[in-house]
């Protein structure tokens, strides 16, 4: 489990106690202000802890849902347009218009920790919208995975989401590439 320095101080630990726990290998310092109970830690958990309002999206969210097999950096997260720039080479921050940011965002438990992530329907829209920004092979792996699970998608929810986006090509791409209708 990952803790931020502020989490540890809220639990009543002093700076001295935290340093002693690190020295005794009861805690491991990941970076300044972030600690783990294990030497090996999950980078997604660290990102979720450091940026609790960020929503996992694109290939990172697809990995969490099992739509792609590999999850290599950069890790894609969406934040509100006016949020502060995240300075992390492993994180690709996508500034989202405030009106679109919350659509389809859910808090789930992933591998024992909480993350914000877009649901499958919203994620499909994001993947199609960002087709040119994704690696060709990853895009096709995601689309093929969506073809396999297309019966699980809520088409009404998908249509409700699409109305909020001003790109008419989204519907065409989704129908052509996932549902194979013209």
Low-confidence stretches: none
Total strand segments: 8
The rough form would be described as elongated
From the N-terminal CA to the C-terminal CA, the straight-line distance is 48 Å
Largest sheet strand order: 1-3-2
Write a brief caption for the model.
Helix content is 42%, strand content 20%. The protein has 182 residues and is of the alpha+beta class. It starts with a strand and ends in a 5-residue tail after the last helix.
Give a description of the structure.
- α4 packs antiparallel against α6.
- The chain folds into two domains: 35 residues, no CATH class; 135 residues, no CATH class.
- It contains nine helices and eight strands.
- The strands form three sheets. Strands 1-3-2 form a three-stranded antiparallel beta sheet, sandwiched between helices. It has a three-stranded mixed beta sheet with strand order 4-5-6.
- The protein is α+β, with helices and mostly antiparallel strands and 182 residues long.
- β7 and β8 form a beta hairpin.
- It is elongated, with a radius of gyration of 19 Å.
Name its key features.
three-stranded antiparallel beta sheet, elongated, 9 helices, three-stranded mixed beta sheet, alpha+beta, 2 domains, 182 residues
Indicate the topology.
Elements: E1 2-4, H1 5-10, H2 15-23, E2 28-31, E3 34-36, H3 43-50, E4 55-56, H4 58-65, E5 75-80, E6 91-96, H5 98-101, E7 105-110, E8 113-118, H6 120-129, H7 136-149, H8 155-162, H9 169-177
Parallel strand pairs: 5-6
Antiparallel strand pairs: 1-3, 2-3, 4-5, 7-8
Helix pairs in contact: 4-6
């Amino acid at each position: 489990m990952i803790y931020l320095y502020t989490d540890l101080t809220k639990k009543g630990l002093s700076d001295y106690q935290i340093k002693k726990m690190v020295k005794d290998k009861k805690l491991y310092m990941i970076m300044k202000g972030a600690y783990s109970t294990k030497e090996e830690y999950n980078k997604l958990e660290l990102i979720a802890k450091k940026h609790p309002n960020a929503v996992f999206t694109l290939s990172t969210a697809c990995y969490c849902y099992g739509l792609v097999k590999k999850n290599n950096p950069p890790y894609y997260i969406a934040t509100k347009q006016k949020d502060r720039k995240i300075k992390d080479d492993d994180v690709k921050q996508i500034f989202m218009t405030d009106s679109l940011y919350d659509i389809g965002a859910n808090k789930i438990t992933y591998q024992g920790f909480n993350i914000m992530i877009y649901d499958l329907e919203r994620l499909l829209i994001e993947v199609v919208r960002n087709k040119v920004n994704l690696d060709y092979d990853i895009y096709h792996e995601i689309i093929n995975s969506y073809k396999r699970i297309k019966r699980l998608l809520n088409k009404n929810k998908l249509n409700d989401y699409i109305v909020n986006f001003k790109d008419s090509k989204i519907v065409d791409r989704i129908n052509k590439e996932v549902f194979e209708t013209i």
